[in-house]
Request: fold
Amino acid sequence: MQNKTDLRKEIKQARKDIPDTGGLSRRIADKIRKSDIYKKANHVLLFYPMKYEINLLTLLEDDKNFYFPKVNGEDLLVCPAGTEYKKSNLGIYEPCSNPVSPEIIDVAIVPALAVDKDKYRLGYGGGFYDRFLYKYPKIKTLVPIQSQFVYNQLPHDENDIPVNYVITE
Reply:
């Protein structure tokens, strides 16, 4: 089995070759809208998409309270969605709003480069979401991902937290 670093490089390169004119992201967003976990949620943690990542910003049109993560040291803060975002030193757009208690979040939609059949995700290597999910285990999690990046098994260690749901196109 490949190590995480090599897999990240390989998957990042493969994602560049997948054109998404909005169709793929739209199909995944539609499936999320139809899922029970999302229908029941009032407070949703979303992520601001980076280049070549599933773009779920159309979900903001739904009648829910949305939040975005903001990196603070090694932790993720939960901040209400707003109209103003600033690019962080990690190259991710983060809300300029003030953080709220993460305990209000019903479902966190979590980014991933890949996920496996046991629902372990391969993230970008910072460990932010795993630390966050370890602290708040009651938050249900969902990973939106292209089906070609669902693997039988990915390398994972004791710090990796599996997600609850995976939604593909």
